[in-house]
Every structure is written in C-alpha cells, then in structure tokens.
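Lecture 7 notes: from sequence to structure.
We start with the chain below.
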Amino acid sequence: MRLGDNNFYNLFSRLVTASNPDRDCDEWNVEGVVWRRSRHIHWAPLSFQIETHRLAHAARPRWSLVFVHETWWGENRGKAIRNAHWTHLEAGDRRDVLRWFSARQAELDQD
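Predicted structure tokens for the same chain:
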C-alpha cells in the first residue's frame, strides 16, 4: 500500500465508516489521531461535492495528512461524471502514516 493508491483509499473509506458510522461528526479521534472533516456541496445543473479530511497525529512520530474526495454530477445526479481522490502529506514521514494505517487495517480485519 502507498499513500494515494486504491488500497489506501479503500482502507481510508473503511476507517471513516468504522470510526464515524453515522457520519454526524465533523471531528473525532482515532488512536491518537485528531480527524477533522468538512464538506462543501453545490447543487445546480452541474453539481459538485468536495469533502476534505485532515488527520493530525500529535504524539511522536508527528504527522498530518490531507485527504480530498471530489465528486461532480451533471443533470443526472444518479451518475457521477467525475469521482476523484487525492492525498497530501503536510508534515511527517509517509512511512509513519502508512504504519498507522496498517495497524488500523489489522484491527478492522480482526473484527
């Protein structure tokens, strides 16, 4: 798994669902990480939603990560015309981030 590949995105989605199952929270904690989410939606004949997540691991090793999910729809809102994800490591070492996510994956796989 690498930051930004499909395996990472799938794990990210699983972790969001497991840690915030009703999706009501905009800020929550997961194993030492403060997780903040914001969502921006514009409905029109050409609509879009941009959902951002900022994860900050305050203990050592310190790191912060931004994850963005962008979706666009035409007049048929049942079918996305663009659905993209991207990540950006703001601070820290990507290996520490991947270790943290791998540990969460092991916990999810046990349940």
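Points to note: The radius of gyration is 15 Å. The mean pLDDT is 94.
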